[in-house]
Amino acid sequence: MTLPYTKIAALPVFWRVGVFLLGLAVLWVPLALPLHLLLRSDPNTETIATMGLLFIEFFVLVWFWGRRVKQRDRPFAYYGLVWTRQNGLYCLHGLALGTGMTIALFLTMAAFGWVEFVTADYVVRVMVEGLGVALGVGLAEEFVFRGWLLDELETDYSPSVALWGSAVLFAIAHYLKPVAEMIRTFPQFPSLVLLGLILVWAKRQTQHRLGLPIGLHSGLVWGYYIINVGALVQYRDRVPPWVTGIDRNPLAGLLGITFLIVLALWVRRRGDGICEDRPQGTS
User: How far apart are CA 224 and CA 139, in angstroms?
Assistant: First the structure.
């Protein structure tokens, strides 16, 4: 059976996204369900296995979608995932910046006396495993939100509408929880929207490559992983959680939002926020 690729490509963006997600679900559920039944006694392993499977199938489906529906010769490159020295340098730059910002945030809290740094014997192990986790999260989420989804929005809408739509959808995807929890952790939502904006700007100002947003995202995750999983700080509870971060999430507080604003200003100064040139060799 031949699928009507041209008709799918002509659909409005939300219908296209719906078709894509339906196809992903059809591929994922039949394989994820047996994994769930087999590994349900070990929730951590189950989550890693099912989510890993989901992202592998997502990458495969995006390649197929780009070739057949979007009619692009090199879909990964078009979405910004190019294996070049320049893109690698963008990623390293972002990784250093994101990690440094997270550490600087905790150092600021320590300077104010809101937290206290403590020692841990296994910090090197935490750093190594945290780097792997951070790069995996950064690659997967940036390819989803700043790669495939942003492109779908840019197909139908202006750059500014696509920018805000991508940022809000990114925040919503990370904010799905019971209503009571949504209200309690509300400071997290504007932080996520702002982070979504920053990551789109980072992509647009590096010739639509994903290296810098992947690096920034990974750096933020890595820095927090080292400090949180490594148990390197103790909170003194001298100020309300909305200042230092609700549930001890540094970006879900006033100080974290302030740091994100500074990062946004830095990213915006790299250019005018819109760069139409994409990696060479794409169509």
Answer: 17
Distance between CA 98 and CA 118 in Å, rounded? Answer: 22
Q: What is the pTM of this model?
A: 0.89
First vs last Cα of the chain: how many Å apart? 27
Contact between 246 and 185 under an 8 Å Cβ cutoff? The reply is yes
pLDDT along the chain (283 residues), means of 10: 80 93 93 86 84 91 92 91 92 95 93 89 89 94 95 94 95 84 83 95 92 96 92 87 84 89 86 50 45
Instruction: Give the residues across from 79 on adjacent strands.
Output: none
Q: How far is CA 113 from the centre of its chain?
A: 31
Say how many residues make up the chain: 283
Annotate the chain with DSSP letters as a single string.
----HHHHHTS-HHHHHHHHHHHHHHHHHHHHHHHHHHHTTSHHHHHHHHHHHHHHHHHHHHHHHHHHTS--SSHHHHTT----HHHHHHHHHHHHHHHHHHHHHHHHHHHTTSEEE---TTHHHHHHHHHHHHHHHHHHHHIIIIIIIHHHHHHHS-HHHHHHHHHHHHHHHT--S-HHHHHHTTTHHHHHHHHHHHHHHHHHTTTT-SHHHHHHHHHHHHHHHHHHHTT-EEE---S-HHHH-GGG-TTSSHHHHHHHHHHHHHHHTTSSS---PPPTT--
Q: Give the other-Cβ count within 10 Å of 281's Cβ.
A: 10
Provide the β-strand partners of residue 117. 233
Spell out the SS3 assignment of 66-87. Answer: HHHCCCCCCHHHHCCCCCCHHH
Count CB atoms within 10 A of the CB of residue 151.
Answer: 21
How many Cα neighbours within 13 Å face the side chain of 133?
15
